[in-house]
Design goal:
The protein is 67% helix and 0% strand. By secondary structure, the protein is mainly alpha-helical.
């Protein structure tokens, strides 16, 4: 299930990055959606890290993947750091496949990259346009963070 979700995030972002020009009607909505999803992934990441008891109560997720106090060991063979990496890349570029903390960091970064790629899709504007757009998408990103993080109160 987690690998399918990760693949979906990757495909959505790669699809947006691969577009030479995005229909201007969808441009702002798609960028905003990616900014919101990036913030939501960041908010869930921080809830996992600092409010795991509330996450567990509300969602009842499998601890082995989502509980940061134990899931960090998933990157190792037999969940034992002395035995080395579980698979090639499990301690490096593919660490997001091993636990919820790294998966949510990956998703947040991926959606941010998608939002930036969409924003710079061939339009040339004055610098202040990008500053204002960046601030507006940052606000949307933080709204996504707050909406997610605040769902998990201790």
């Amino acid at each position: 299930m987690n690998q399918k979700l990760t693949a979906l995030f990757l495909l959505i972002s790669l699809y947006s990055i691969g577009q030479e020009r995005i229909n201007s009607k969808n441009h702002y909505a798609l960028t905003g959606a990616f900014a919101l999803l990036s913030g939501a992934a960041d908010g869930f990441n921080q809830a996992l890290s600092f409010r795991y008891d509330a996450v567990e109560r509300k969602l009842n997720l499998p601890d082995r993947f989502w509980n940061p106090s134990i899931s960090w060991l998933n990157k190792y063979k037999g969940n034992d750091a002395k035995r080395g990496a579980k698979f090639t890349g499990s301690k490096g570029p593919l660490v997001f496949l091993t636990d919820g903390y790294h998966l949510t960091r990956f998703a947040s970064n991926l959606f941010n990259a998608g939002a930036v790629a969409i924003q710079f899709n061939g339009h040339k504007r004055k610098w202040h346009y990008y500053v204002l757009k960046g601030l507006s998408y940052w606000i949307v990103n933080r709204a996504g963070f707050s909406l997610t993080y605040n769902q998990f109160k201790n």
